[in-house]
Amino acid sequence: MRAPTLPVMLLRIVGGIALGALLIIMAMTLISIGLLKESISQRQQTNTDALARYGDTFVLQMEHLIKLAGKAALSANETTRSSLLSGIVQLSAGLNGLYLLDQDGKVQASSNPNNVAIGFDLSREPAFNVAKNLNEGQFSISPPFMSTITNKIAATLAIPVFEHNQRKGVLMGELSLEELQAALSSLPINPDELVLIVDQRGTVMAHPEPEWVQERRNLSHLAIFQDGMSNTQALRMFYNDQHGHWMIGSTSLMSAADWLVITEQPLSVAMRPLFWMLAVASVALSLSALLTAFVQRWGLRQISKPIERLVIRADDLASGHSPSITNQSTSQVAELASLETSFEHMAQQLQTTIAALEQRIRDVQATEANLTSVVNQLHASLAEKETLLKEIHHRVKNNLQVVISLLRLQARTLEDERAALALAESQQRIVTMALVHELLYREGDLANINAATYLQELAEQLVRIYGPAARRINLTISANQVSLNLDQAVPCGLIVNELLSNSFKYAFPNGANGSIGITLEACAPSNCCLTVWDNGIGLPENIEQNLSNSLGMRLVQNLTRQLHGQLQIEGEQGTRVMVTFPL
């Protein structure tokens, strides 16, 4: 059996050392990932479960307090119920207000009579509509909203109240979510970890940065939110957050309110122990490389003697001396000369090729650097413009709110009811325009707004303004996924504001019931139809004179011209106004 040659032995030794080092690194990496995953999972789940239990305890305590307040209110005199509820609110840090409602949603007692008066209709509140059909001991919680009392995020908790096993109504309590924000801030988390709470729709309810809560940002598009809502506990090791960063996250569902607690940490920070482990493995690999180099040096010394003799002969031949090859045959001398010529020619070709490749690489690198610089500048410019547009819309909305407040203050000083009414109508028109700017920076699309969302929120504002008279009306809205730009949204909103206000005020006299509808849909390949209708008393016979004398209808006509549209009015069976304009 032939013994292996020295190069073969050297190759086997080097290959064995490299393979062993690679297997060690792979084993250490897999073990580290498993241990680190378990550690991160336990710590994050502990934090999320603790905050979820605190949230459940807070909700259940508020539910117990509201239940006791309901029993106390039923046992008190009608004249002292409101003061009793007001005292309970003052003693509770988690309550902004308490309101006792009858089965029809009318306020019987209020802790804040200035905000919600006795007899006010709250039958459209989501929490009331659920709670009025619940059994004793059950409760419902509304989605989060900005409180008109504290101007901070809040939610409504409603429970049915019973007396002698008979349903007497519903007691609604406005919960302050500042308690959850404080509990979130007190958790023992790392500085680079983020803990937040969202509701079942993905709206942020508690966050270390208050702007996330005030702007009601929505995280329903994140994979960790979707996993968390579908499982009581979910750990998603690797995912992208809203900024495109790789994160490690954990969730826990609050069973009392169906709210979700999310804990997340940057992957680069969480995997830092693994990086240290890989550094140790790299050191081991370096030591293996040193050993390999030693073996290579030993092997090269074993095969260097023949090469040295060949070099000496080549040098002698190049210098014209031949003492070392005097004993060589002529064929051997010719072979050395041929080998020398071939090496020299090959070296020249390689040098020329390498020079050309180096120049090509330099050219490609320069081009790549220029392109990278241009792309980075474009991204930075785009991000700056997007931020600036959001800030502009935010400030425009805030400035319009200041104008609304000034008009409200001016109206309070007027004794002339017609002047005060005109100012109130002007306030609502400015609110309509402010809502467009709010949706533009809140939804994230700075060019277009969702017409369905805009019309729904605008209609809800008008319902709150006109109070009980508007709540007797069945209001339907259909927008069919139509998007409007800023130049279209403001005129459309003002038109709907005028027409819907007219229907609330004049279509149903003497407290009559009825229906009002708003439809926005594509009626042609490039046109859009806005229709506002009601089944009220219709229009008077002298409609042309009323249209010329009414400021609201003149405003509708002017806004229709601004949209380059056409206005059509029908008043035989109820009233139907249709505006057709190009998209």
Task: Please characterize this protein's 3D structure.
This protein is an alpha+beta fold. It folds into 3 domains: about 10-285, PAS domain (Beta-Lactamase); about 330-445, no CATH class; about 460-580, Histidine kinase-like ATPase, C-terminal domain (Heat Shock Protein 90). It is about 55% helix and about 20% strand. The protein has 15 helices and 18 strands. The protein has helices at about 5-75, 80-90, 125-130, 180-185, 210-215, 225-230, 265-270, 270-320, 330-410, 415-445, 450-465, 470, 485-505, 545-550, 550-560; strands at about 95-100, 105-110, 140, 145, 155-165, 165-175, 195-200, 205, 235-240, 245-255, 260-265, 450, 475-480, 485, 515-525, 525-535, 565-570, 575-580. The strands form 4 sheets. Strands 1, 2, 3, 4, 5 and 6 form a 6-stranded antiparallel beta sheet that branches. The longest helix is centred in the middle third of the chain and has 83 residues, at about 330-410. It catalyses: ATP + protein L-histidine = ADP + protein N-phospho-L-histidine.
Please give a quick description of this structure:
The chain is 57% helix and 20% strand.
